[in-house]
C-alpha cells in the first residue's frame, strides 16, 4: 500500500488541534469576533479585523498544542490583511493615510522579532517572526500608540505567564513555551484599547 503524500501528513499534523476541539475553537473564535465587532464597530476595516480574529484563534490553538505556527495559516494572512486594510483605506477619516503606517508596522515588528530570532535562535521560532509581521500590520494601522502597547503587552503577558509557570513548577528554565498566544493576546489588547 502506498504511503500518503508528505504534504498531507504535514497538513494533518497542524490541523489536528483544531479538529480535536471543534467546540472550544468555535466558541473562542465567536467570542473573539464578537469582541472585535463590538470594539471596531461597523467600519470599512472590520472585515480585516475579523480575518485576524479567526486566523489568530486558529493559530493560538495550534501553537499551544504543537508549538508551531503553520505557514498555511500565517502566510495567507499577510495578503488577506493587506488587501482588506488596503480596500478600507480610502474610507478612513484620513483618506488612506493609515495604510503606509500599517506597512511600516509590519516591517518594524517583523524586523524586531527577526533580530531576536537571529541573536537568540532558541528563544523564539521562525513562526513567531512570521506572525509578528502580520500583527505589526494591524497594530501599525491603528497607530504608534497601539503598536507600542501591543509589543509591550506581548512581552509583559509572556513574562508573567512564564513566571507563573515557573513558580507553580509546571515549567523549568529550559521549557519551551509557545509564544504565539502571547503575541496574539498582546495584539488583541491593543486593538481593544485603540480601535
UniProtKB/TrEMBL annotation:
Ranges annotated as spanning the membrane:
23-41, 48-66, 72-91, 103-126, 146-168, 177-194
Keyword tags:
Membrane, Transmembrane, Transmembrane helix
Q: Where is the Prepilin type IV endopeptidase peptidase domain?
A: 57-162
- Which first-to-last residue range defines the signal peptide? none
The entry's family comment says: Belongs to the peptidase A24 family.
What this protein is called in its record is: Prepilin type IV endopeptidase peptidase domain-containing protein
Species of the source = Actinomadura fulvescens
